[in-house]
Amino acid sequence: MCRLLNVLLALLSRFLFAVHGVVTVWRVVAVKQEPLYWLLLTGVALLGLEMAVTLKCTRNAEWKWFSPMVFLYLSTVIPSIWFLELSLLQSKAPVNDSSGPELHLLAHLPITAVGVPPPTCPPRSHIKGIGELDPENWVAGLEQTMLIVLVLGRWLMPKGDMSRDQLSQLLMVYVGLGADILDIFDTFKEPEVKTNRAVVTVGLALFSWALMQFPLVLTQTQSTLGKPPQGGPGALCPGAPAALTSCCSSEVWSLLLTVGLQDGPFLIYRLYLMAQEQVLNQLMIFFTCKNILIVLLELYRI
Where, by residue number, does the polypeptide cross the bilayer (predicted)? Predict the structure, then answer.
């Protein structure tokens, strides 16, 4: 019965990832008008093979330290977000136009025939349908739902060797990481940044780098909190003194990865935007202070 439940949860989580991946790639094809971009679906297309290998080779239908399912999903979504964001950047770039300002003014003047009343349009609803969303809203929606899908997919998939406490801890970490990552995309809307290709490219690179935390499962530190590992102080590192034993624990590696994959690079990026690009707003100041505090607290804990 437990095995059947694990199979059903594995199917449901991969189906959720596959649906969002297909929608994201479909949007890229619609924007680029090129069927070749359907090749981006290779990642989610391999989810079926990955599931068969995972169910056959693992006891609890899930790997312990690394999730190939999440990695394959990200291999489809991350390049798609890159293409969509760069398309938005290209549409916002200033266009050199040789026509004079008079032609621009005339183009915006309403022209109506004398004696003919202007046509009346039937009232329309202010609520836009999915097909009427502008490209910027499409990209923002896909980015936000991507992080929601990551949390829900991790929650639905089999826990493997994790306890409920470890799984809830991991999910809360995911939610915090997602809020910080989404703020990077909000900086792309600032007037000082939205046409700066170099800054947007670096932001997308940091976004991709930070998402590499999601395939990792680094909450499995100790089976019982507060108890030393079996075999004495040198069990993890034979022959090592007790002071060095903690450096081999997965909890320390988790903290180091969090600093190296997200908080450290994000702090440098935001400080650059504030100092060089003069991007100053409440959210920028808040998340910069948050990154400083997180880095200090994590180094203190290490």
Answer: 37-53, 65-84
CB 194 within 8 A of CB 188: yes
**3-class SS of residue 106:** helix
Above 90 in pLDDT, residue 170? no
Judge contact between 291 and 266, C-beta under 8 A: yes
Mapped onto helix, strand or coil, the DSSP state of residue 50 is: helix
Assign 1 a pLDDT band (cuts: 50, 70, 90): low
Say yes or no to pLDDT of 226 above 60.
no
For the record, the structure tokens of 18 come out as 């596959």
Largest separation between any pair of C-alpha atoms in the chain: 97
Residue 290 has pLDDT above 60, yes or no: yes
Alpha helices (H) along 215-281: 242-245, 250-258, 264-275
Quick one: tokens of 14? 């991969």
Q: Which of 168, 190, 154, 146 is nearest to 283 (CA)?
A: 190
Q: What whole-number distance in Å separates Cα of residue 142 and Cα of residue 139?
A: 5
End-to-end C-alpha distance for the chain, whole angstroms: 42
Q: What is the value of pTM for the model shown?
A: 0.77
pLDDT for 173 equals 83
Domain positions in the chain are 1-93+135-217
Written as one letter, the residue type at 165 is D
Tokens 């707003």 locate to 281
> Could you give the CA distance from residue 10 to residue 61 in angstroms, rounded to a whole number?
7
Nearest 10 degrees: CA dihedral of 222, 147, 33, 15? 70
* Averaged pLDDT for residues 150-177: 83
Separation CA 257–CA 118 (nearest Å): 63
To the nearest 10°, the Cα dihedral for 286, 288, 289, 290? 80
Q: Report the length, in residues, of the chain.
A: 302
